[in-house]
Amino acid sequence: xxxxxxxxxxxxxxxxxxxxxxxxxxxxxxxxxxxxxxxxxxxxxxxxxxxxxxxxxxxxxxxxxxxxxxxxxxxxxxxxxxxxxxxxxxxxxxxxxxxxxxxxxxxxxxxxxxxxxxxxxxxxxxxxxxxxxxxxxxxxxxxxxxxxxxxxxxxxxxxxxxxxxxxxxxxxxxxxxxxxxxxxxxxxxxxxxxxxxxxxxxxxxxxxxxxxxxxxxxxxxxxxxxxxxxxxxxxxxxxxxxxxxxxxxxxxxxxxxxxxxxxxxxxxxxxxxxxxxxxxxxxxxxxxxx
Length: 290
Hints:
- With 290 residues, the protein is α+β, with helices and mostly antiparallel strands.
- The chain folds into 3 domains: 1-28; 38-183, no CATH class; 198-286, Tetratricopeptide repeat domain (Serine Threonine Protein Phosphatase 5, Tetratricopeptide repeat, Alpha Horseshoe).
- The protein has helices at 3-27, 184-197, 200-212, 217-230, 234-246, 250-264, 268-286; strands at 38-46, 49-57, 85-88, 92-94, 97-99, 102-109, 115-120, 136-142, 145-158, 164-181.
- The strands form 2 sheets. It has a 6-stranded antiparallel beta sheet, with no helix packed on it.
- Helix 3 (200-212) runs antiparallel to helix 4 and helix 4 (217-230) runs antiparallel to helix 5.
């Protein structure tokens, strides 16, 4: 056999061998093995605000981390694989910066004496590629401290109260801690105002249901009067007018309809869908029709 044919034969053998070696890997695509950097998530409620950190957790694995695997003075994705993400369900404060509710990429610039922690709007950052400072929503400088050895990079929340928490990052023998604040008192106050502002609705809904379903009109009127006593709206006054008209109290129905029209001025729903019917009904009730 010629040298040329030997080389060709060897080449085929090598190629076949390569395919044979690839075969098991290709045919075993469904096999799961642990990722080098494990996916992780930590959650914490602070007052009324839910916080979540989604990240990939690399291990030390005997390597020098700070100043080697993670260079000092350079932007770091603060994890591995996809960008690390911090989500707050309500507005919160980092440093002196109020951050709107939402999800943000969390990046850092480590150094021996100071770390800069950054929240950035671009959650699609791959590593640090695509990062632009103009998309930063908050920056805060924190001082690193020593910590007991931790093999895998870990985020955790600590010192949590109704008004704040600390987001800690621990890896190898280093720890940083980022203060996060929430204005829980203002959030609760706003919730109270909204709840009290909507307190007229249950009585209105009950009165409306009784009228629409042919229920007891006296009970319906009692519910609607209770609703108006909490907060007069064109909704509850309009149904009160209709109940009064059905009970044969035309003059009282006209007065309630007048109130309906007054409260409905400027309301898009009233102006678009109810005003014409209210005015038509008023005209009929003034004639003594019900």
